[in-house]
Design a protein that fits this description.
The protein is an alpha+beta fold. It is 41% helix and 31% strand. The protein is built from 4 helices and 5 strands; from the N terminus they run H-E-H-E-E-H-H-E-E. The longest helix is centred in the middle third of the chain and has 22 residues, at 35-56. It starts with a helix and ends with a strand. The model has no long low-confidence stretch (mean pLDDT 92).
């Protein structure tokens, strides 16, 4: 209704106090997105928050949206238990990771993650914008 940032703020505020997870949301720059792009980014953030609560055992999650020239960066970082992505992906990629990859493709975004057992997880989406 009121754009991506407002929707994310509402979602983060709604989860506050329900779980033992402190979520920070930071954003800088301006960007123009279609409604579909906004919805896909919102769903990515929802999935990451859900996965962080369900699997990461994290106490903190940072969500950042940053504009740099013709790219919008969505970067999330948690202080959870992390996981071995290579090992996990050879066994069976989880539905959550599959959903993130699918939404990145829809957005024509570059998607990467860095995770180590015991060191948390960082997701980076590099989304082309106008």
């Amino acid at each position: 209704r009121h754009g991506l940032v407002k929707a994310l703020e509402e979602y983060v505020n709604k989860t506050y106090g329900l779980y033992d997870l402190e979520i920070s949301l930071e954003y800088e720059g301006e960007w123009e997105l279609t409604k579909d792009e906004e919805i896909n980014i919102y769903r990515i953030v929802q999935e990451i928050i859900h996965n962080t609560i369900k699997h990461a055992k994290a106490s903190k999650l940072s969500i950042q949206l940053k504009r740099d020239q013709d790219k919008l960066y969505l970067i999330t970082t948690d202080d959870g238990v992390g996981f071995d992505y290579d090992r996990q992906s050879t066994k069976n990629i989880g539905l959550g990771l599959f959903n993130l990859q699918s939404r990145a493709e829809i957005l024509n975004a570059k998607f990467s993650l860095k995770s180590e057992t015991g060191r948390g997880t960082r997701f980076i989406f590099e989304i082309p914008v106008k």
